[in-house]
Hints:
By secondary structure, the chain is of the alpha+beta class. It has 1 helix and 14 strands.
Amino acid sequence: MRLIFFGLTVGFLALAPRAIAQSARASDDVAQTSLSQQVSTEFSSQAQLKGFYLTGALGGNWPQAANVHGLNTATPYGFQEFHNSGVSIEAGLGYDFGQLRSEITYSYDASLASSYSDSWGVYDYSPRADVVKNNALVSLYWDIPLSSRLVPYIGGGIGYTALNASPSGQLGPIYTPYSAYLASGFGYQVKLGMSYLINRRSDVFAEAVYRGMASYQASDGIALNEYGNYNSLGFQIGARVRFGK
């Protein structure tokens, strides 16, 4: 009997440390899983933060060629106008509903009208005309939830665009001056971007932008022209500061 009791005691003492170690490892696994779930939930709640926020961005835009047709010419006449790239600035106020956000923004897109081409050739403007679009747009965006600090989004907006172009001219045997002009019309934009959540109240983002203005009419001092949609591709980086709870 004493030998049996002694054997059981030795066996218990041999197995106890292993059982304790396995129990400790299991506790650590549970704790790590709980912490991981907590972090995931925290990031998810940041992505869903609701309320008002301020937004601002800076970048560049690359206008597409604009098709132009003369309206009061003796014979039908048309040409394509080409623009150099320029700076873009955007600022506004938004509201985060969760996965959906709405924004009211003002954006500034500058470029240079550099040349035009018609059936006779390609001609440079001298001086080149400064062309500026001032856009007031209302937009809606969908933040795609990933339970991560990185949040992709897509959206677009519509509104009003005012355009102004500075005086320019065309070199040649006889210098041809073109007067400044103003125009306004329907404005629109589409965006695809990625946000990075810094904390619950701020994030930074990078986005591709397609922003444009519907066709409009304007006189350059020589003829009354109809300009086709004036569109540009752009890229912006910016930040948002939130005031929600």
